[in-house]
Amino acid sequence: MPNLLYSFRRCPYAIRARMAIALSEHKCQIREVVLRDRPEHLLEISPKGTVPVLLLANGEILEESLDIMTWALSGILTPSDSDSDLITQNDEDFKKNLDRYKYSDRFDDDYDCETYRDAAVSFLEDLEQRLTISTNLSSEEIGYCDIAIIPFVRQFANTDREWFNALQLPRLHDWLERHLKSKLFLSVMPKLKRWQDDDPPIIFPFETP
User: Fold this and answer.
1) Which of 3, 34, 179, 208 is the Cys-Cys partner for 28 at CB 3.0 to 4.6 Å?
2) From CA 34, how far away is CA 9, in angstroms rounded?
3) Helix, strand, or coil (residue 178)
4) How would CATH label the architecture of 4-75+187-204?
5) pLDDT for 134-165, tens place per residue?
6) What's the whole-model pTM score?
């Protein structure tokens, strides 16, 4: 059985997993999930029901996006200690603030979503500072850290593009736009229809003409 990836196009965790796989030489079957109607097989191998989930050909199951990234990028890219710290900030504090800014209707708290939006900006300012040192977050070339964080900054930016574009973070804007227009990012973002049991296999990374 080939490697099998359950994914959802817009999910930032799934995006970074796909980017890592696309950068590697690994192949897998990909199945697009609609989260309100999860496939039974996905729930069998990963009862938490979130994506991405990667079922390896040897039967091992990777249920976390960073685990998938580490598997895919082994021997290619490895995060430094400072990278790992920054990714932790992204996945914890920044993601919390992003969710309460973008999805304010999901939370019972009586709060102003702009409070969380502004709190998230402090993380973006940290990224801006790192980008004064190199073109990307760790070096001149794209690194593990960039792949891990790009999808979340994209999600934040798309919540209110006009407001985001007005932020005085020129290096961050350049970094984000450069990656969103990159061959790597565009290669993992084609729209797929929801996978159903009788669908033929779709191989990822997608073959280009």
Assistant:
1) 3
2) 10
3) helix
4) 3-Layer(aba) Sandwich (3.40)
5) 999 999 999 999 999 999 999 999 999 999 99
6) 0.96
